[in-house]
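Why do we care about 3D structure at all? Because function follows from shape, and shape follows, mostly, from sequence. That is the central idea of this module. The next example makes it concrete: a single protein chain, its amino acid sequence, and then its structure expressed as tokens.
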Amino acid sequence: MANGSGDFVGFPWETIIKSYRLKIGRRVFPTVDGCAKDFISFLGSGPFNNIDLEKISINYLFVKEIENLRTKCCPDGPKASFRKSLLDEISKDRERAERQNIVLSDQLDDVFTPDILQFCREIFKCHIPKGILNSIQSLCGEIYRRAVPSGAETGLAFAGFGSEEYFPSLISYIVDGKYNAIVR
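And the structure:
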């Protein structure tokens, strides 16, 4: 069962689930947990790979965060005041992100650096010093590797009996995009 976003990296859940069922056929799993893990693995390496859509799913996190910073810090006032408030908000958001569980051991891929810088230019519409840009990029890296929701996440529930289970099991995951075959 899926709830939340109606798609995963641009592909409808109904299509993904149907493809997974065709892939496994009549295969029986010893545990519900084993089935759930196999499905998550399928999401990362199955036929639904599109690097451009994957990149968009991760960039969505960054745009949301940069827009949030822009909303909290008005760049129209004095530069010193704007820079201080921006650094304060980056620090607060980083602390909030660091309270979330780490879901990815990988660090942010450098392929996102130009996108993050471009988003900053487009959203702030003013010059942001390199040191602050580095702080924003670092914040985006923390958001990427931790369980910070993007707003496009989907809850997945796997319920039932595995062939070796005597009692029903319920396994749940929250998936929130993927990049380079790694499901977030």
